[in-house]
Amino acid sequence: MRRSGWILTLAVLTGCASLRDTFTSHSETAARVGSRELKSATVAEIITRLGGPNASPEAASAITGIWVDYQLFANHVAEGKAQNDSALMDRLIWSQVATYKISAWHDSLVAHRAELTAQGIDSAYSGDEIRMFQHILVRPKGATAADTASAKAEIQRVAQQAKTGDFAMLAKQHSADPANKDDGGYLPPSPRGAFVPEFESVAWGLKPGDVSDVVQSPFGWHVIRRPPLAEARSRFETAVRQRAVQHQDSVYIAGLLESSNIQIKSGAPDAIRSATKDLAGAARSGKVLATYKGGSLTVRDMSHWLASYPAQTMNQIQEAADSVVNNLVKFLVQNQLLLEKADSAGVTIGKEMRANLVTQMDNQINDLKTASGLDTPTLSDTAKTAPAERQRIAGERMDDYFKRLTSNQAQFRPVPPSLSAELRAGGDYRIYDAGIAKAIELVSAAQKNDTSAKAPPQAPGLQPAPGGPPTPGGQKP
Fold first, then answer.
1. How many CB atoms lie within 10 A of CB 45?
2. I want to staple 116 with a disulfide (CB 3.0 to 4.6 A). Which of 120, 185, 267, 268 is the partner?
């Protein structure tokens, strides 16, 4: 009895609106923020108008989520919350800071392991694993026989000049490959299989300094050169180091995960799907998603990372198969392990980097304030305008922006995901599953009615043939 009393008291203290939600059906309302409501019919009308006959009914959740974030943001501005609060900003940029620390520590570790000597670079250049080439490509400028003959004559002249001339200058003058003609015709250092067979079979037979005869491929006619190491050392060294880093990265991560003995709990996918719908609740949950040697990943840990994910990604997680969600858990455990190692190594973020991250977050918030008209002095000067009046003004301005946005009359400015999670954690709002389902039903019904209205009349007893109309020319090449 005593515990029941506590629960009832808590419900009362959270506000009459929240208590009313407990006993009221909301099949006609998609969401509520404070006393403001978004009707299911409004959501359906927006989706149908924006998407037309191909509108996705599932977009109801996305539209509703955007509206909730906007209304909570309007309340946030109206309440005069300090945007320059350092504690708040630390929470908003947490994932970016964590990612930077992980990258800084991980990159330095892997780069050290991937160090190459000059002798190693020389050996790699003369080896068979990766090669560097230059080429000049000539193609006919038109479809006539004369165009083809002109291109063949040009490539023959270029091939003769390339044997003893300045290959890079010839590439700039004659090559039709815009990706590299101004860079001496250099192609990225690549392993076997990176080029079409006609090109590769000749190129791989060249020795450093050799220039090929004319080579024809599906792209046109080529002259290929394998530059000497002395000319290409800087380019080649960069490419080899990148490959070495990638290899060491794969080796290190594989070893880290294996030695950590990660065990994902059977209920992890469902727990994560639930968390994406309620990050505020997730931030308070100690439920274990996975264990590893020396620690565990909880729903609370995961919520810090998910707070930086956009709404579209959160919706995709909700629809993803268990195997995909389990891979996400494994990835987040990997992040947590790397962050622990970075912290143990004393990796910190510099003042300049933090300032840049804060500026980026400020810019996103200010862009939304400007777009929605919440940058007015009436809202910024809390001493001159009563709280209730600020709430009214902010709500009306945000309603107007939302209407313009969903009528293609304004540019979309999202609430930053981490700020959305922060606002939802302490905001008075509800999203109603029954109301979302109703919006989806209305969109589907509108599509069905539209299809029926446009369907051509059929002769009695006849049915349309299955499939679409025949395609001219048959199958695509």
1. 16
2. 120
